Amino acid sequence: MASLAEIEGFIAPEAFFELDLGDEDFRQNAVDRYASLWATRQPFYARRLGIPAVVCSRARDVREVMLNPSRFVMKAPKLPGYESFDIFGGLESVLQMDGDRHGRVRRLMNPAFSPASLPAIRPAVERIVKERLDAIEATGPHFDAMQDLCDHLIVRSLLDATFQLNPTQQAAFERVHRAIFAMNFRPGQARPQEYTEAIEGARAVIADLIEDRRHNPRDDFISKLISARDEGSKLDDAELYGQINTICGAALGSTATSLAAALYLLGRNPDQFDMLKQDHSLIDDALEECLRMHCPGFFFFPRFAACDTEIGGTPVLENMLILASPQAANFDPEEYEQPGKLDIRRKPKPLTFGAGSHHCIGVLLAKMTMRIGMRAILERFPGIRLADPAFRPTYGGNVGTLTIASLPMWLS
């Protein structure tokens, strides 16, 4: 089993990409510069906050990582220096499970995210969208599509409509979300105090939620998780804690960024935006194309080599960090003609939500929420546009995420 020091010694210093992937320069230029540059590049070595990693950015290499869970695992090795990969503070998430256990927990979670579960949620999401657009119209015509619309819309659609949490409970998970996405510490550094306090606060809220739903079950996600069975097996309390924290806390940012990114890309391509405004039947295809062009994260959740192996001709040591990039893979010219061009009639099949057994479990809910939001925006404000036609986002979040900080727009 290779140690971090052995992994360091395995790679010649000159073989590393020149920037640390945690550097601000990389974050701010990841979409516009590195996605297309790396889309045809053989897997290569880089550092993520000082930790050596193999970066996979061609579509075929990303799929190889996604579709070979026996070679590339989600659970981080217990190595000195890898502590930062426990982003949930000891609460084990389905995102960090492998093999039979992952399959069992995933099967127990599936009913809560199935197509059959969406019609019950849809009216509440539509109500929340209308309320947000009412508020924006009342203070318009200038607004921030990320801060005034997408952030609020997704938080309320998930935490209120889907999970039926009260405002105090919602605030606790919003705090977890902010703390997780501010985690950018290197090996040897202590966890931020805000992160520790946020996780402890979430634990207390989750305990209350489980107790309440066991005695007063509802037709909601948490009640379904508690009652779900797989061949007689149920989620134990530790598993419930981990999955509730993952879905209610960690998952908030991706859908918000995806809807904001769609508005941004369409605003930067007014011919495509005009086409969509004139034909709302293109909404699904347009959103899919925007998800291809701008992922919520430049990298997927980290994986680790389970053995000495290779990817695309690049040697990999056991325990090495593997970073697969859907953002770059979606620009691979072997997959798409003119990959840098937004074409809402393209009908792409992007890797944005992953592939294989760890394909995003909430993808149907996310796409439904985006679809409802986009349709309502276009019907209500057909003249919507970017405040600055040449606007370029500033990105925040933890390493590898592409959280849009602000998106100034005009209603007409």
Kindly state the number of beta strands: 13
The sequence of SSEs as H and E is HEHEEHEHHEHHHHHHHHEEEEHHEEEE
User: What is the CATH level 1 assignment?
Assistant: Mainly Alpha
Number of domains: 1
CATH fold assignment: Cytochrome p450
CATH architectural category: Orthogonal Bundle
| Alpha-carbon Rg, integer | 21 Å
- Residues in helix, %: 40-55%
Q: How do the strands of the widest beta sheet line up side by side?
A: 1-2-3-9-6-4
Q: Give the distance, in angstroms, between the N- and C-terminal Cα atoms.
A: 60 Å
Q: Major beta sheet, specifics?
A: 6 strands, mixed
General form: globular
Number of helices: 15
Question: Overall pLDDT, averaged?
Answer: 92
Model regions low in confidence, pLDDT < 50 over at least 5 residues: none
The chain-level structural class is: alpha+beta
Q: Find the CATH superfamily.
A: Cytochrome P450
Strand percent estimate: 5-15%
What can you see in these coordinates?
By secondary structure, the chain is an alpha+beta fold. It has a single domain (4-384), classed as Orthogonal Bundle (Cytochrome p450). Helix content is 48%, strand content 10%. The chain contains 15 helices and 13 strands. The protein has helices at 4-10, 24-38, 59-66, 99-109, 118-139, 145-162, 167-180, 193-215, 221-227, 237-250, 252-268, 270-278, 283-293, 326-329, 363-380; strands at residues 16-20, 44-48, 51-56, 72-73, 142-144, 303-305, 309-311, 314-316, 321-324, 385-386, 395-396, 403-404, 408-410. A six-stranded mixed β-sheet has the order 1-2-3-9-6-4. A three-stranded antiparallel β-sheet has the order 5-13-10. The longest helix has 23 residues, at 193-215. The radius of gyration is 21 Å and the shape is globular. The mean pLDDT is 92. Keywords: Heme, Iron, Metal-binding, Monooxygenase, Oxidoreductase. InterPro entries: Cyt_P450, Cyt_P450_B, Cyt_P450_CS, Cyt_P450_sf.
